[in-house]
Amino acid sequence: LLLTLGVGTAALYQFRREQELARMRDRFVSGVSHELRTPLAQI
């Protein structure tokens, strides 16, 4: 029982970490994309 609980907790932690990394990646790509488009719009 204790082993199952430990494995489940580790899996949940890993899942949440992957979600956070995906959010960070999306924000980064969105920011870079915006910064690249902004100067082009002014031309």
Q: What is the helix/strand order?
A: H
Radius of gyration: 19 Å
Class of secondary structure makeup: mainly alpha
Q: Give the proportion of residues in helices.
A: over 70%
* Sheet having the most strands: none
Strand content: under 5%
Label the overall shape: rod-shaped
As residue ranges, the low-confidence spans are: none
Query: Helix count, per DSSP?
Result: 1
The average pLDDT score comes to 92
Q: How far is it from the N-terminal to the C-terminal residue, by CA?
A: 65 Å
The total count of strands amounts to 0
Could you list some keywords that capture this structure?
43 residues; mainly alpha
Describe this structure in words.
With 43 residues, this protein is mainly alpha-helical. It contains 1 helix and no strands. The protein has one helix at residues 2-42. The chain is rod-shaped. It starts with a helix and ends with a helix.
Give the helices and strands, then pairings.
Blueprint (H helix, E strand, L loop, with lengths): L1 H41 L1
Briefly say what this structure is:
By secondary structure, the protein is mostly helical. The protein is built from 1 helix and no strands.
